[in-house]
Amino acid sequence: MQSGLAVIHANHLETLTDLTVQWLSEHPLAPLEDEIFLVQSNGMAQWLKLKLAGDDACGISAAQRFQMPARFLWAAYRSVLGEQAVPPTSPFDKSRLVWRLMGLLPGLLNRDSFRPLHQFLADDDDQRKRFQLAERLADLFDQYQVYRADWLALWEQDQRFLITPRGEQLALPEDQHWQAELWQALIADLPESLRGSSRAHVHQAFLAALEQGAVPHDLPRRLVVFGITSLPKQVLDALHALSPHCQILMLVQNPCQH
Fold first, then answer.
1. What global pTM score does this model have?
2. CA nearest to 34, candidates 184, 215, 220
3. b vs e for 84-106, b when ≥16 Cβ sit within 10 Å of the residue's Cβ?
4. What torsion do the CA atoms of 127, 141, 229, 18 make, to the nearest 10 degrees?
5. CA gyration radius for the chain?
6. Cβ-contact 137, 97 below 8 angstroms
7. Alpha-carbon distance 210 to 51, whole Å?
């Protein structure tokens, strides 16, 4: 099977589905080999399964695995860098960050830079506000790891800057210094061996390893990215880096009929 990355646009999901069926039929995998699909939601996965199972399509939906991009990507990191270097789940995952932040916030609120949070958490006897804040912050730092890894790298080095889309450095507003300090606290809270396990760190190590000739293990021969309307640059970079080792089809819904 020829490796590489192909991006196909259409303005109807049905058109993309027809093309997927045609491609899978003309280039079948081995009988016991799973077809891997990346989708943006469980709803899209269920819709595509039903479409593929139709009498006018494959006639059956079997030997297919549907995953979210982030989950697949973490498995790809482990396949390239090794299971010893990358933990099964990151301590910087959103679900774990919530509880880590719940524990860290009380010890930080006395700092002057954390005054905005201290005011928000006043009169919080049942810790409901703290939990809600931890959820919001966990989501924020999860997004930063994907979309603003450059900011986190600066904050780690105690540089209070933001980087614009043009690559210019801007000073972090003083009333936002608590964000940089909180990220530093999240890193310092971990053992030395896990401090480089954020998605941003692992992603850079993954790209560097592939550039130096590393070969992924247990990578599917074909990967179908179906109907995802937008992907962060981090995921696109990873797919591009994996394309010499895997056939990747990106079927993109585009509002333009041409």
1. 0.85
2. 220
3. ebbeeebbbbbeebbebbbebbe
4. -90
5. 22
6. yes
7. 36
CA nearest to 137, candidates 87, 90, 103, 172: 103
CB 224 within 8 A of CB 66: no
Specify the residue for token string 């590489």: 4
d(CA 258, CA 241): 29
What tokens appear for 209 in the block?
A: 């390893």
Beta-carbon neighbour count of residue 244 at 10 Å? 12
Residues in the chain: 258
**Which of 247, 251, 240, 252 has its CA nearest to residue 33?**
247
The answer to whether 137 and 174 have CB atoms below 8 angstroms apart is no
Considering only the C-alpha atoms of the chain, give the largest distance between any 2 of them, rounded to a whole number of Å. Answer: 65
- Residues 92, 200: Cα–Cα separation, whole Å: 10
Q: Torsions phi, psi of 71, nearest 5?
A: -65, -45
Q: Which letter does DSSP use for residue 125 in this model? A: T
d(CA 48, CA 50): 5
Distance between CA atoms of residues 71 and 160, nearest Å: 31
Instruction: Quote the crossing angle between the two packed helices 177-188 and 94-108, to the nearest 10°.
Output: 110
Mean pLDDT by runs of 10 across the 258 residues of the chain is 93 92 91 92 92 85 90 93 89 93 94 90 90 96 91 93 91 94 94 88 94 91 91 93 96 86
